[in-house]
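Ticket #4471: complex job returned nothing on first submit. Input attached below:
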Amino acid sequence: MHAGKPYGLFYYTCMTMIVSGCLEPYAPPDASTAVDILVVEGFLDQGRSSASVRLTRAVALASTEKPTPEVNAKVTIEESDGPTITLTADTIAGSYIANDLTINPGKPYRLHITTRQGSEYLSDYENVYHTPDIDSVTWHGTAAGTTVYASTHDATGNARYYLWDYVETYEYRSAYAPGYQIQKGEIVQLHEDEYVNRCWATKSATSILLHSTKNLGVDAMLDYPLVFMPLRSIKLSIRYSILVKLKVVSEQHYAFWQQLKNTTENIGGLFDPMPSQVVGNVHNIRDAREPVLGYFGAGELREKRIFIKHDELPEELQRVTPKPQGCEIDTVLLGLIKALPDNTFLIYPVGGNGPGTAGGYTTAMPICMDCRVQGGVTKRPDFWD
Amino acid sequence: MKTLYTFIICGMAMLALTQTANGQQRGLITVELSGAPFKQLVDAIESQTDYHFYYNPRTTDSLKITLSAQSQNVNAVLGHALAGTQLHFAVDAQGNIFVTEGRDIMTDLPADFFDTGVAPSQQTLVSGFDYTAYEKREKEKKLVESKLYAIGPKSSNLQGNATMAGHIRDVTNGEPLVGATVYIENPLIGVITDQFGYYAITLPKGRHELKIKSISMKSTVRQIMLYADGKLEIELDPDVTPLKEVVVESDKDVRVMGMQMGMEKLDIKTMKNMPLALGETDIMKVVLALPGVQSVGEGTVGLNVRGGAANQNLILFNDAVVYNPSHLFGFFSTFNPDVLKNVELYKSGITADYGGRLSSVLDVSSREGNLKKFQGSGGISPITGRLTLEGPLIKEKTSFLIGARSTYSDWILRQLHNERLKNSQASFYDVNLNISHKINDRNNLYLSGYMSHDKFKLNTDTSYAYSDRNASIKWKHIFNNKLYAVATGGISKYSYTMSSDLNPVEAFDMNFSIQQINGKVDFSYFLNAKHTINAGVSVVRYSLQPGHIAPKGEESTQKTMALQHEQGQENAIYIGDNFEVSPKLSIYGGVRYSFYEYLGPRNVYQYANGIPRTESAITDSLYYTSGKSIASYGGLEPRFSIRYSVSQNASVKFSYNRMRQYIQMLSNTTAMTPTDIWKLSDAYIKPQVGDQVSVGFYKNTRKHSLEISLEAYYKTTQNALDFKGGAVLLLNKHIETDVVDSRGKAYGVEFMLKRAAGKLNGWLSYTYSRSFLQTVSPYASEVVNKGDYYPSNYDKPHAVNFVGNYKFSRRFNFSLNMTYSTGRPITLPLAKYELGGNYRLYYSDRNQYRIPDYFRTDISINIEGNHKIKKLAHSSWTFAVYNLTGRANAYSVFFRSENGQVKGYKLSVFAQPIPTVTYNFKF
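Support reply: We reran it on our side without changes. The output follows.
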């Protein structure tokens, strides 16, 4: 049975639309009240012989700040009746790592944290799970758009609980390619390495993708849909890449993510399960009632990357991505250009009086010229060849 | 109707004849009588002259003649003898003397006058006269009201009491009238007809004027001479006259004088006047306008009565249990308004004959078919169409009623341009069939069948279908005036299926069903004027198929899995006595003993002691063979009420009742869903037990036109079920590992001001109520909100309802309905945190916040066609606007992480005014 869906009746919402239902933004009453809860995200990776733990603090709902990292904590992973692995702080604040480990897949492990303030936390013991390879990552286009699928199987039939994840990277262009910029009041022609019309954006999965084959006769998953990109999606406008990740986890670990999915994605309808506090497997050793969020797991991470080029798409999907709204070219006379703010991009000169002169420059809204406004970076990723 | 014509024609004939004959002499009479019966006078006159008398012994049998006449003519003798009585006489040319009661023969004759054998002779004489059906009925009514009915064999012993009984029916279709009041004024003794329109009243022997009143029927009286126990059938005229103003008399005294408290009764006529949401009268929505009844949101059918869960209501349709009374997620109820008669909701003071659910009893009765003629009715609204046909199978003995309703929403969906909706399907239908048969005066048989079916698929690849079916047979036997019995047998079945073909490899079909077979024998015994005793036995056999999943299609690798079937039996025996201690004080005391067994065959998991019940704590499984008792529960359920009249117009009441419930719905969603599962009490899940005490004060003012009531209640629930976070309820082989025992408490005050009669009628109610739950578990991992009491999903402290109707004229009616309530509790996120590259939400303790308050106004206008009795079809139009102010009432509030951001949304269902037009017809 497809996880959660049949019972969730999430599409109840659609039905209500028939009778003129409506959805409005809603701000909860206590959105800015501060909270102080430790968030733990830890994984012991047998495949890479490494461990990584990230410690942060939860933030108020309305807060625009990033979660505060928990720095200077003492983080160890303990093998049951075995040695202790000490993790060291990574360059990213709140991250702790350890490499070149010897992990015994037959032994359970647990996480042990002592924060700067002296609070001590322990996770439950977790078994190390073997993850089968990702058999394939494929895609298929229909008139509505393109879907990326992944398949795997476990010949031993022991895997059963799968956690999928992915990172997407795609190349895209801004609507116009500016050649000039106002720098300190002067119009400066851009060098090739300063061009801002070609970007690569990287996005992680926004929804929790999990799947269990518990009720299936065969421990296999064929064409599990991961991402859907509608026709004219910017992701497929030039070239698209997806790195698919797979972890086999314990039943409890799976249930944790399932609950998290239920409380953040499948709620709100009267026929959806009521949200509840999702508590992981990490606890304060002195105060069992203190909520600690997140989960420590152990196992293997499998990865597979594929690329999709725009011109590989079926004919009916090769459509131009529309420009962002309001992307019209505007001409600004030379005399008025000084009034524009610094760092404004200009596209090309117009109305010149002979070579090397200009009566004015064309320009447009930043989103139409600077691809970085849409979330990407101009640095080409290493794997992009 | 033909017989009636004959009577009228004869009457006319007599009129013509007697005009000329009156006053002729055929001899003189000498007679000496003292307190003699009328018969003696007749004998004297017939022996001395050749006059011949025609009269109805019944109209004259209580007459005592004292007369002394010497050679007088017949006119003088009779004039003297009948002076001061209701009797009239006329003499014709042939020497026939007609004695009539109540009126002069100039206008009419008693209907049964002709039973003595005089045939209509000269019909031609009456050509040119025509009476409308209405006028004819008026005449008949006058006749029967003035006639003296002798009850029981005549005797001179008028000491003590006697019981008379019978049925009150609608004259137009023979349908029994429920809740009609039958009473005498001096001394004030009254009863109310039961569900069969049956009444039994114990009165002092002698002459009485019996008054009969029933809502939307014309009040009438009967002159009775009560000699001994006897029978009187009474027919009432419907109040459909085109007169200017007729005050509708209803059960006005019931609230103050009746025993029952916490009971609301609505008949279909009241309900049809209320504004409607989707062009259809919906009894569930009307019930929601009553104090103490709430729902978690618009478009859900589950009722929460006095802080109880939606599955704690016993919903009966003609005595068969209905498990899911909703169509289309609750936008409609499954009860077709055209076949309904009335709805009774018991919130407290539940009598011993009901059992099996904690919170309330919603007793829905359908009409009986017309015993006299064929007729039909129906309606067309923007979403549904319905048709009802009824009529006699054997005239005056057997009638049928069949009603069907269906939607064309599938067709509407296909017309939409939205892709998502185009691919959706939603359809439903329901069918009702009733047959009632009068075997003889003492035996009646009622058959009822009901079926509802829903199917939908909402832009997903999962389709759902559910169906509720039931049938019941009821046999009423009257032993004598004081004792009657009703034997009922019924079967109810609720089932749903779910099937998905999203991924051919995982395509499945899943189904669930619950079936119950029940039998009940109920005796009503009118011991004497002070005691009415009700007793009976009931048996319910449950069988559940709690879940079965199978692969769909050849590619599917879905494993077939079936949960073990469940069986249980609930037996009950009960007795109750309504004791009228004095006119001021009456007491109801009753007790029900219910006994329940959870039966094999079944494999039952055993769990380790002292640790939370989880899958890993399973130590063993025990097999119980078929019919073997796995667990048994039982106990007494006392029921008690007392009424004390402070004055003629005011009373106070108190009641206590305990209820036990052996079957519960498992749901961890806010509202009832079609795919909720039901579970029998077993070795681990104990039956729920509820206790309620309530007190009330009732007062009628200004000639009963205003009724004021104030009721307060406190109730507790033991063994209510709650669920561990993220519990999986569907296809769970060991559901006991996911549930947590909890207890509930609820209390509240309900105030209601009602005006039942007059041009302006309706009610205004205010309710303050709270409802809490608390998990009871020794293990910290199993408790919700640290083991404290927390508000239930349906805890809405303040609720105000206004329902008003204004009759501009007989044809034009305006209704206004306003509802306000506190928003329901919800669990809100308190903080966000990053996990797996996205923001996640950290939620508050359960139900610590509330969605915004709810407010809605609806109006409707009813326009009836002309009121000519004779026409092809009667039709009416209803124009209604639901949510007139267009307020976007929050249905739910929820949060989602979208593109790495946490966004809060408020969803409302009817965010705009919804106008509808409905055309109703009747032929």
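Chain B touches chain A through 90 residues (CB under 8 Å). Closing as resolved unless it happens again.
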